[in-house]
């Protein structure tokens, strides 16, 4: 039997209208590098979003489902685009301005973007790509920049403020199905083509509620949040949408991402909350050591994107009184998965142990661990499995390209669940600890060995500078670990000693038989161990391997 | 274009499973009057909910969509029923144990309840009704009570603990449509038959997220909430569901609702949060004055159900350091409508002024005010209109009775919006102030006059004990106010003086011409002015009215 509740869709439009009306006095403050920041109220952003929607429809001919891309920093105009485009029934496509030209070109063409809103300062980057951006009909230049680089380009060029000027302040927002596409973001995976995740109005709405909840970021109109995480990176973790839902003020970096600029804007604008990847925080910590500034306004910092070194978390807490909260998520998860708030009652070292985990899942993200033989693993804090997640803001497929069917590659989706590619354990009280990437786990005789765990133990040995462990084929066990070790300068240690060292720390059957000493571990462009290369070197017989 | 997000339904089942697994250590503590309270973990409640579902299906034959009623106090077993019944696809029907026998009988028959779970202490109340409860096949007696009153009754009688004992600890919860009925609650309106509101899994899920959000109750697993508001009263304002979503501990009153018992349980169990109607708080305040106790654990108290006297709010804040937060809602709104947190930056008297309003709406509850001529009124803090609301947890119809079509009476639903029957104004920053009930407003010459406002001004006159103002027909203006005044003992005052007194406080055209002094204002059974009776007395010429 159906309920008698109203059938009202959850839409970005509703968030926009609510924010502009009920939280009209809340502000988006955009840092300008020098002089006064630009301050714009939610009310004014609401009005300008209406004008932008009018301009996109009436002047540029944007129709429902058209992809409208942004190549922009975090600023007030980007917030306007964030709301205007989905509310009018089109699809906001945020472009990652850090991508190599080839990938960016591929992505724009794959998404079939018709319009790009681009910050003027990014034109030198975009202009050379234009000849190959086949679907793009219009460029809208936002803010100052050298437009001469656009001379003779095919798309029609518009200036943002001129486009908005004198547009009507009303727009009859269409009635939307909450499952309709609202925004999209491509993952920049290390293998294969980038993959587009298409967020729905429903998924964004629900995710925004979660961001505001106490167990996640716990924000209200008393807060000012500083999302250093870019708006092209999974919707700045949902913060702009969450802000319009409850009136959270936003401090926007624009292009000023250097540690000194961040420290300066924190001191001047006194945000209570911030969110960024670990490297930004490390940079800020170093900056504050070199040139102390008052960052005492900040109550909580969310760190995501990759695991945060425990020392960094402790430093912020102990030296600056800032609570650092780990969060785990990915483009496919909108991104809120876990946050590492310790449970009630945990104090001191126990609390720290919880904070070093990836954290706990909200009700809307259901996790399961799939073990070596495809079985669901228990939450005992010991049984490892690949993390799979399910929920209303988790991707169920990828965008198949303009007009094509959604893609559900087997290595990414499993029986309605998203395969995260992360391997870990879950404690009896639901805390996730990630131990490895699924592709790097060693599948030995129906059991899993974490490469990361072996590496961490090896690198704790005083004579070892670096260690990378990879899976290599083994006739009896399927796979076995190969330990690749870089010795510290002047050190000498034999394999047998390292084996004993490991045996004291992990189960006997996990200890590698294959060992090699190398001058350096091959690295990817972002400095991670490149295990593909090691596996290839092993297969090609390029490594001098000792079998013990 | 559709998004590629997973299509995962929002269900009570998910809340149950999440709460029992991730927040398994959180507790429901049930007060027992004497001795230790009963403490039960969310994990154990989860297991017992599974056992209850097995028992209801296998022993009692409960099928999807069957209505299973509860006639119970706030306690752990009621929480088990709250989750087991909707999760198995049946409909939880909470019965109001304060209703007169006639209404309760009508409601059970209208809902066609097949099973009633009843606390043993309530059997003396239920037993006499049983012969007329035609659809009820099973009674499940929960907790101690005199079951001899059931001798010879038609329904089969079960004992709750025996029914659960040795049941399987697994249940394959059905896949549910999120719009499916999960729970129902009848309004006890002053006119006409009671009306059933049927909540969906979706509406309960979304409402639970909202309850947890900072702008509403702002709760986490660090909190213990004391919902004094009964679980048969709009799902205890959504608190049990919200608790399982984020691990909030619950302190349950069971049948111990006397101020002394409440004060005792607060001192002993140290809740951080509580929710109840104003009369409970007034009683508690008086109790604390008479016998001081330590209630310092309580951070916030939510007051709803009817407007809270400002003096009570100030007393709690100033004498006990407890923040009292006004909330407005109704059975048809799940019930979270507004909460009266002042906006950021408001301090002192300005903050108090905001706290005395009904508060601000969340994004999911869209309000509009409909004025005297059916037009939408502006949010200017002055233009009054009937409040209409729209959103995913707002009723769109009433339950039409077993097997019948939903009911959408014109005076309750308007063009997809719920007519609340409340008249008020909304400030430019979205704060609602209710001024009157729509049926009591005086529609004079296309403008509205608030009866409550005139009454409040009149009652502020030193010689006036009580005053009721009602609309009476007027040839020229449609309606005009009639002022019915009760003088204080020994006082004498003439109508002209009262007219002048009012003229100094409201617009001239709002001042009544028709006056009458009466010995007492007629009251309803719950002590409210019975304006129907006054209007009838006027129409019948029973009042001695002076026209000035």
TrEMBL record, chains A, B:
This is Long-chain fatty acid--CoA ligase. Residues 35-399 form the AMP-dependent synthetase/ligase domain. NCBIfam families: PRK06187.1 (NF004837). Pfam families: AMP-binding, AMP-binding_C. PROSITE patterns: AMP_BINDING. Residues 453-528 form the AMP-binding enzyme C-terminal domain. Keywords: Ligase. The keyword Transferase does not apply. GO terms for molecular function: ligase activity.
């Amino acid at each position: 039997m159906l309920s008698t509740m109203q059938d009202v869709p959850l839409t970005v439009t509703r968030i926009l209208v609510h924010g502009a009306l009920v939280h009209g006095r809340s502000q988006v403050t955009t840092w300008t590098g020098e002089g006064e920041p630009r301050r714009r109220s939610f009310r004014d952003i609401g009005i300008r979003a209406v004008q932008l929607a009018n301009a996109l429809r009436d002047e540029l001919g944007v129709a429902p489902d058209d992809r409208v891309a942004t190549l922009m920093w975090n600023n007030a105009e980007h917030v306007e685009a964030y709301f205007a485009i989905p509310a009018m029934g089109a699809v906001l496509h945020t472009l990652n301005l850090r991508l190599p030209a080839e990938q960016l070109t591929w992505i724009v063409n794959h998404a079939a973007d018709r319009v790009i809103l681009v910050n003027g300062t990014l034109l030198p980057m975009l202009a050379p790509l234009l000849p190959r951006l086949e679907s793009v009909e219009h460029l809208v230049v936002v803010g100052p920049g050298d437009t001469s680089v656009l001379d003779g380009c095919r798309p029609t060029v518009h200036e943002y403020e001129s486009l908005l000027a004198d547009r009507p302040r009303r727009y009859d927002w269409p009635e939307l199905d909450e499952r309709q596409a609202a925004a999209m973001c491509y993952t920049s995976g290390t293998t294969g083509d980038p993959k587009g995740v298409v967020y729905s109005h429903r998924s964004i709405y629900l995710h925004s509620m979660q961001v505001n909840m106490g167990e996640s970021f716990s924000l209200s109109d008393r807060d000012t949040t500083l999302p250093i995480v870019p708006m092209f990176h999974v919707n700045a973790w949902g913060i702009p949408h969450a802000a319009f839902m409850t009136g959270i003020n936003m401090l926007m970096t624009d292009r000023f991402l250097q540690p000194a600029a961040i420290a300066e804007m924190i001191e001047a604008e006194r945000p209570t909350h911030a969110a960024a990847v670990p490297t930004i925080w490390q940079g800020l910590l170093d900056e504050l050591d070199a040139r102390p500034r008052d960052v005492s306004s900040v109550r909580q910092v969310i760190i995501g994107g990759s695991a945060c070194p425990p020392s960094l978390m402790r430093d912020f807490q102990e030296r600056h009184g800032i609570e650092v909260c780990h969060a785990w998520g990915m483009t496919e998860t909108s991104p809120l998965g876990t946050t590492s708030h310790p449970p009630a009652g945990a104090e001191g070292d126990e609390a720290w142990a919880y904070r070093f985990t990836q954290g706990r899942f909200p009700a809307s993200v259901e996790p399961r661990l799939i073990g070596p033989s495809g079985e669901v693993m228990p939450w005992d804090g010991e049984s490892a499995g690949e993390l799979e997640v399910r929920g209303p803001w988790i991707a169920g497929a990828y965008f198949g390209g303009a007009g094509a069917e959604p893609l559900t590659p087997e290595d990414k989706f499993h029986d309605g669940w998203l395969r995260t590619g992360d391997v870990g354990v879950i404690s009896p009280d639901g805390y996730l600890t990630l131990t490895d990437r699924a592709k790097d786990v060693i599948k030995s005789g129906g059991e899993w060995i974490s490469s990361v765990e072996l590496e961490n133990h090896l690198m704790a040995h005083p004579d070892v500078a670096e260690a990378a462990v990879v899976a290599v084929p083994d006739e009896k066990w399927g796979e076995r670990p190969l330990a690749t070790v870089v010795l510290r300068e002047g050190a000498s240690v034999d394999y047998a000693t390292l084996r004993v060292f490991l045996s004291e720390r992990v189960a006997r059957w996990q200890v590698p038989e294959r060992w090699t000493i190398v001058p350096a571990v091959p690295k990817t462009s972002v400095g991670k161990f490149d295990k593909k290369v090691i596996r290839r070197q092993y297969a090609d017989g390029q490594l001098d391997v000792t079998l013990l």
